[in-house]
Amino acid sequence: MNPQAAELNNIIQEKSSIVFEMLSERGRNIFFPKKGILGQTAEAKGTKINATIGAAIEDDGSPMRLEAIASKINLDPSLVFPYAPSFGRPDIRAKWKSMIYEKNPSLNGVELSLPVVTNALTHGISMAGYMFCDPQDEVIVPDLFWGNYNLTLTNMYGSPIVKFNLFKNGGFDLEAFGAKLNEGGVGKKVVILNFPNNPSGYTPTLEEQDAIVAVIKASAEKGNKIVAITDDAYFGLVYEEGIAEESIFAPLSQVHENVLAVKVDGATKEDYVWGFRVGFITYGINGGDAALYGALEAKTAGAIRGNISNAANISQSLLLTAFESQEYTDQKKAKYDIMKRRYSAVKDALTEEKYKEYFKAIPYNSGYFMCIQLADGLVGEEVRQVLINKYSIGLISLGNVLRVAYSAVAASDVKEMFEGIYMACLDCKK
Is the dihedral of CA 244, 250, 256, 261 positive or negative? Predict the structure, then answer.
């Protein structure tokens, strides 16, 4: 083991032996290199002649660049062309942390790590897997889950996905979740909680969120060591009263010393910048302090350096500029209002009584999506093909469930979409 990895492990063991036991074999062995090229480059910062970093510099000391590119970008070249740190730009890390507190007021006074920048959420989930998932570690998810977990966790790290039933009696199935979490005796558990959920578009009610946290706390009190990864890709897009508006990361980061909350989030969906690829990974645990979090941040940055080196500087700079602008809040509210109108159009359309013969909505209240469960005798893939070929409507088939991304459908087109689904079902029945 590299001495720098051992040094970080010693800090983690001293601060929380439980967190150390949660680390995967990769997680224990990874480190951010403070010596070698990076260390020597840091020591040379500010020298008159600096020939350390593998980047080209103009004679005036600014980043070398092509005018064909630079002329299209209204930012200082120093914010665009140089490498960003593997941890992410310090300014956007600090800003995102402050925004986490603003969005989750119950975290007031709670010490969290400084977010580490990832290449959006897929990479964030992958880095969480790098840090905590060995092949023997099952990853607990609901039976309606984002299929990319298979690639990022099972194919990449060998950790099998195990599922619990998500819905019972129109709400979150707490009994199924608790049974799966406590299955197989006391030990390390890895769970992903994705709210608003992809594909169902469901966020727990305030009461359900409290109950989920209570289930996790009770499991931790039995001796289970739980890595609770919160996939907050669609955070903030809640459209009904009584639904949890804070991330479940907030209570989980304080609930028990046996529960490490790992928040994976980012600007992708929250700020409508899918191609920017800027995400964050943040840690929280009862009793966590700067030393523990600093060691976890360093290991995470080491994993990122060994994987993609760093996330794009220009995307981080553009986002920070937006976050600090006076127009940001109003513009984001305007886009939220559009999304809520589309959600409301879906709710209105589904009041049509005739649809119930062929499909019904799975619980939904937030996010980008909702799903419909097809009636017995209908096959999702057959309906999907008819929708494309006869009605020019595209949906996603998940077995006997169709996922509707109403985020991409104008409110004025929603009724036509569901009429098309109804007619396609009618065609398939015939």
Answer: positive
Q: What is the pLDDT of residue 162?
A: 98
pLDDT at 92 (0 to 100): 97
The predicted model gives 278-292 an average pLDDT of 97
User: Using one digit for the tens of pLDDT, what is the confidence trace for 71-130?
Assistant: 999 999 999 999 999 999 999 999 999 999 999 999 999 999 999 999 999 999 999 999
H or E stretch including 182?
none
Task: Using the predicted structure, report yes or no on whether residue 39 has a pLDDT greater than 80.
Answer: no
Contacts of 395 (CB under 8 A, 6+ apart): 384, 387, 402, 403, 404, 421
Strand order in the sheet with 116-118: 116-118, 279-284, 259-266, 225-231, 188-194, 139-142, 161-164
For residue 174, CA distances in Å to 86, 165, 179, 246 come to 39, 9, 9, 19
50 pLDDT exceeds 90?
Answer: no
Residue found by looking up tokens 């070398």 in the block: 64
User: What count of other Cβ atoms lies within 10 Å of the Cβ of residue 18?
Assistant: 20
**Which residue from 383, 365, 17 is spatially nearest to 196, judged by alpha carbons?**
365
Compute the distance between CA of residue 15 and CA of residue 24 in angstroms, rounded to an integer. Answer: 17
**What is the fold of 329-429?**
Aspartate Aminotransferase, domain 1 (3.90.1150)
DSSP state of 274: T
End-to-end CA distance of the chain: 66
Q: Is domain 3-32+86-323 annotated with CATH 3.30.1330.60? A: no
For the chain, the helix, strand and coil percentages under 3-state DSSP, each to the nearest 5: 45, 15, 40
Q: Which residues contact 105 (CB under 8 A, 6 or more apart)?
A: 246
